[in-house]
Design a protein that fits this description.
single chain, 60 residues, mainly alpha, 1 helix, elongated
């Protein structure tokens, strides 16, 4: 049996942040290949709401 310890990749507690404090990694442009996927996710959020919380990482 292995005795290696696994570190958490996230904090156990949630933090409420205003949307203005969350910055995108990059802007999504219609010319991007992922734009169709972005529109699909947006349509899903509009139809049923946000199912899972956003995951953010602190800016250095």
């Amino acid at each position: 049996m292995s005795t290696n310890k696994v570190r958490l990749g996230f904090e156990r507690r949630g933090i409420d942040l205003p949307l203005t404090a969350i910055l995108p990694i990059r802007q999504v442009k219609p010319a991007d290949g992922c734009f169709g996927k972005y529109r699909a996710v947006l349509a899903s959020i509009r139809a049923i709401g946000l199912v899972e919380p956003l995951v953010v990482h602190p800016n250095k």
